[in-house]
Amino acid sequence: MTSKDLFLSKISNWINTPKLFFRRELLPVLADLRLAIILLLAIAIFSISGTIVEQGQSVQFYQANYPEHPALFGFLTWKVLLIIGLDHVYRTWWFLSILILFGTSLTACTFTRQFPALKAARRWKFYEESRQFEKLALSAELETSSLNSLEEILQKRRYRVFREGDTLYARKGIVGKIGPIIVHASMLIILAGAIWGTMTGFLGQELVASGDIFQIKNITDAGPWAEAQIPKDWGLRVNRFWIDYTPDGNIDQFYSDLSVLDEEGKEVDKQTIYVNKPLRYRGVTIYQADWGIAGVRVRINKSPVLQLPMAQLDTQGKGRIWGTWIPTKPDLSAGVSLLAKDLQGTLLIYGSDGKLLTTVRAGMATEVNGVMLTIDEVIGSTGLQIKADPGIPLVYTGFGLLMLSVMMSYVSHSQIWALQKGDRLYIGGRTNRAQVTFEREIVEILDKLGEGDKDGAIAPTTLANQS
């Protein structure tokens, strides 16, 4: 061997070494069912943790709910939670790595096991010796039966028949071998949709008063590639927000009448949303999630209508109350506090000394501090949750295929061989599931063949179960 040949041989070995390592060492590990089960359990466990631990909250929230003393389970504190990434499990590098590794394992299993199994199932082989039928789960030997009659019977039973001289092979249910491949493909589609939605989706919240126009800006959670999904060429207008109450005064349902506006301010869509009935537009879904009180419109004596904002007060978890301060003198040296807990109830008016002066409802007037105070309207605000998840169509497609492929996987793949030797007909078959049903089918086929024989005779003990 010349030095040139030796050099080329070394180069070839260097190039082929990674390929050989992948095929002989890495691929069998990736295709191992035990690895897939471990990864699936890990995905399930971390998905559960993402459901239990509140996602996307502030640092202060985790400090309050996961203190260092005492630590949850003896180790889980807010610091550990933030370092590991349990506050945004589904976007951590390690969770996405598990998903990708699981998808790689499914792909490896598909190409190393499922495709070869399908290829083997589609390949036909004729039995040319009677002793070959002894290894089959079911076999029979008939006298004076015709291979032509058997072929006709099998075709009527939707078998695909291959024949060569005195030998015959028939199969049906090949879709049962395709089913597992589609199961893997559908799971890969679901994984791809989940990853794509995680990387490109976003979640936002807006609290908007009736009559206001807004664009989606208050993004609370977003993937690293979500910027392109956040709408910039259209906005929303809250035409009206209202609440329906039950006869006993509790909230029954709250509604938002919304208009979608293009860049020029023209209305391109309009819908009334409520809980469980969102608005969907160009891949973005707007849910009715909350409500509040944005402000109040008042008049003092014969003044023009004044619109004052109302803020939610801290009640230490004892209910929701909004309040504002209304001046009763032009120099703002005196005024009253106005409190409200809903859009239809009584408003409370307190003096500067903290004592309750009077109560009033919207549309009514009352005298306070020597002036006539009229409450024209309490302005409600709608709490909207805005969500975009571009991966949802992929996930739905994957689940649809998964249901279809699971049903396909339950179809039995049945095979029948036959050999004609003189006045003897050897028949045998096997199936991968529904063994009892297949045995009944074989018996029915033998009965049909027996009816076609002149003597109607089938040799005793010719149907043998070798399993």
Description:
By secondary structure, this protein is an alpha+beta fold. It contains 9 helices and 22 strands. Strands 4, 6, 10, 11, 12, 18 and 19 form a 7-stranded antiparallel β-sheet that branches. A hairpin with a 5-residue loop joins strand 7 and strand 8. About 2% of the residues have low confidence.
Structural class: alpha+beta
Number of DSSP-assigned strands: 22
Helical coverage, percent range: 25-40%
Number of helices: 9
| Rg, alpha carbons | 37 Å
Distance between the termini: 58 Å
Main β-sheet description: 7 strands, antiparallel
Concise summary:
The protein is of the alpha+beta class and 467 residues long. It has 9 helices and 22 strands.
Key features?
single chain, 467 residues, alpha+beta, seven-stranded antiparallel sheet, six-stranded antiparallel sheet, 9 helices, 22 strands, elongated
